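re: ur question from earlier - yeah i can do the single chain one, its not a big deal. heres the input i used so u can compare w yours
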Amino acid sequence: VQFVESGGGLVQPGGSLNISCVASGFAFGSKSMVWLRQAPGKERQGIASIMTMGTSFYSPSVKGRFTISRDNAKNTVYLHMTALKPEDTAKYYCNYVGGESGDFWGQGTQVTVSS
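and the output i got, formated as tokens:
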């Protein structure tokens, strides 16, 4: 099982950013996927998830600003982030739902929101 996250960077408050995660080593199309983030000194938290057929769920902290999507043909899950705030600064990870308690993690992608 492998996850490769990419697309992070430095963005100004109010800006937008798209990040992606390519997964391999499991049946991607049959798994719900989740984006999580971890800020310095804090625990990793799930912020958005998407079921196999596209139904999505969001934490209150990102609802209305972030959009999760997936492309099963490319084994890829995306996170479109808008109206970014300094408190969105974190390293972002993806996983499949249920895998968050396991040992398979990617390197994450750093998102920094700062002027």
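The longest strand covers residues 17-24. not sure if urs matches, ping me
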